[in-house]
Amino acid sequence: MSQTTGASASASYKSAGVDIEAGDHAVELMKQWVKKATRPEVVGGLGGFAGLFDASALKRYERPLLASATDGVGTKVDIARRMGVYDTIGHDLVAMVMDDIVVCGAEPLFMTDYICVGKLHPERVAAVVKGIAEGCVLAGCALVGGETAEHPGLLGPDEFDVAGAGTGVVEADAVLGADRMRAGDVVIAMASSGLHSNGYSLVRHVLFDRAGWALDREVPELGRTLGEELLEPTKIYSLDCLALLRTAEVHAFSHITGGGLANNLARVVPDGLHATVDRSTWAPGAIFDLVGSLGGVVRPELEKTLNMGVGMMAVVPQQSVDVALSVLADRGVDAWVCGEVRERGEATEAVTLEGDYAV
């Protein structure tokens, strides 16, 4: 006697929630965007099991070091989902990965992505990839492949997440970092475009759970809706940093992400030295004050969670300051001198934030 489950139709991958045909359609939709994010070294096109990159291009290096990084965009994806806007979150992903890579002085080469969804909506996935491809163009790297996975039952039908991994290259004797920093060096800040892609768990808790604000709320201090502010893409500094390296002496970069300004700058300050940053040299954007005031978040907590208006920092010798600021200004990057490097002396921390923010 045969056994049945009580179902009249046989089970299939599609009935379990995974739609292979929708995945194929998504690939077709994203191809036009991936083609735009390429480099001469890319071999082949989208659809293979692996992306190919011609490593013979590295022969011009004496001792090429490959730099790699991987990251996501955290709970900022919830803002994109709630707003139904999917073509900017990819900029955030590229920035989080490639701006980490450029910190050591590496040129971004290529990137891959991973998109996980509860239910595959081809147009949405293609929009995410469009943003990633546009971000890769802004970072000067190629998008050589990726993966889209459908996880029914683990994610809701409209839920998704994104992650990426990137590779760059730097000459061994040109690697930037703590060993190059010297007392007397100057710290240059580069303005962020907003919250970037860190601290959104705190931001969402304060603005949604505590303050009860809606994404379509017009906020005079921001000059736009709350949702538009929260979805502002992370600025991509890769090509700006590489332009600095071509024209000025740079000892270190610091990408200001999770952990805030002081903690990230401390990662490139060596033992024996101490960096001071003067808060009075800039005024953080209105969104930072809103999060602090609406949530009763004390300044130390804000500063170790959010970027407070600074997305990237460069540490340069005094004689390179004017050139560095000029290069950044020509590239449309708002930048200013915010601090200096001294002998450690009696200081107990690698980085100290001093003064009060400008109004």
TrEMBL record:
Keyword Phosphoprotein belongs to the record: no
Domain of life according to the entry: Bacteria
Compartment annotation: Cytoplasm
Keyword ATP-binding attached: yes
Pathway given in the UniProt record: Purine metabolism; IMP biosynthesis via de novo pathway; 5-amino-1-(5-phospho-D-ribosyl)imidazole from N(2)-formyl-N(1)-(5-phospho-D-ribosyl)glycinamide: step 2/2
Catalytic activities: 2-formamido-N(1)-(5-O-phospho-beta-D-ribosyl)acetamidine + ATP = 5-amino-1-(5-phospho-beta-D-ribosyl)imidazole + ADP + phosphate + H(+)
Record domain PurM-like C-terminal: where: 182-347
Keywords: ATP-binding, Cytoplasm, Ligase, Nucleotide-binding, Purine biosynthesis
All residue ranges annotated as the PurM-like N-terminal domain in the record: 62-170
InterPro entries: PurM-like_C_dom, PurM-like_C_sf, PurM-like_N, PurM-like_N_sf, PurM_cligase
Cellular component, GO annotation: cytosol
Broad class of enzyme this protein falls into: ligase
Coarse class of the protein's main subcellular location: cytoplasm
Enzyme Commission numbers on file: 6.3.3.1
A Pfam family recorded for this sequence: AIRS_C
Gene Ontology MF term list: ATP binding; phosphoribosylamine-glycine ligase activity; phosphoribosylformylglycinamidine cyclo-ligase activity
UniProt record, GO biological process: 'de novo' IMP biosynthetic process; adenine biosynthetic process
Protein family (similarity comment): Belongs to the AIR synthase family.
Protein name: Phosphoribosylformylglycinamidine cyclo-ligase
Taxonomic placement: Bacteria, Bacillati, Actinomycetota, Actinomycetes, Kitasatosporales
